[in-house]
Amino acid sequence: MPATHQPPPWATEIKALTFDVFGTCVAWREKIVSALASTTESKLSSASSSASTSSDTPPSEQVLSRARSLTREDWARFAQEWRRAYGGWTRSFVPDETPWRDIDTFHHESLIDLLAKWQLDGLFTPFEVEKLSLTWHDLPPWPDTIRGLQLLGSRYRTAALSNANQAILKDLNNQKGVDGSSPLGFQRLLSCDMYQAYKPSPKVYQGAVRDLGLQPGEVAMVAAHLGDLEAAKKKGMRAIYVAKPGELEFDADVDKIKKARDWVDLWVEEGEGGMVEAARRLGINVDIDVGDVAGVLG
After folding, report:
1. Which one of 99, 161, 220, 260 has the lowest number of neighbouring Cβ atoms within 10 Å?
2. Which pTM was predicted?
3. pLDDT tens sequence across 84-124
4. Which domains, from first to last, does the chain contain?
């Protein structure tokens, strides 16, 4: 495949790219499932040991029995429900009406609710629940993310635009690849707590464009979620879809996906190279050594 590609005409108008983070830039499933499963394994091991010195009330035998019955596949379903609860809450959030909660708070409170729903109330100590809820600060980047951001950042301003709060974004922005390579290195971190609204609220996209000092047509939203892109597109931004495993929305609506191909400005299918391929299609030479292009956080 050639290192460069003829860019679409609109690419010359773009000055900045905003990126969804959860699922688009970082992979959450394996990390969250592993954290849940390993913490449970440790809990069951300590519960069966007479050497346990914890001052916390131990889980009941009923809860321990329930935990022993869960497989990794069960924890994968649990993680998906946790993620789905987040998506449902952010989509239903009404700015200036719904009481504000940042995502750290929501992750913590929704985990408590979900443990009760799964009849696992009391399995973990409050400290363990809090630690599990903070796993979202420690998600690994997809293999294409760091290189893709470096390439894209060599031509455009790059900004995270996420429902995550600033504390999460700052931690994720420092995440390095599995080879210990450069961190994500977004040049700006735009979190929804800055706008007291959550994507897909128009307030978020309008606020991001305003804070970047640009016009909507000068900014492209990059995401693995068509709903995010659809909302950005409605506010005049360009839409770049970069597919990631398990992140496709509208998967039960084939017609809606087909129609999305008509309004998405650039579509990178799964397996085509992710953000590196997006950079190539935007006319960036993907063979160049761009080094660390991270700017000052803002």
Report:
1. 99
2. 0.92
3. 999 999 999 999 999 999 999 999 999 999 999 999 999 99
4. 9-27+140-281 (3.40.50.1000), 29-137 (no CATH)
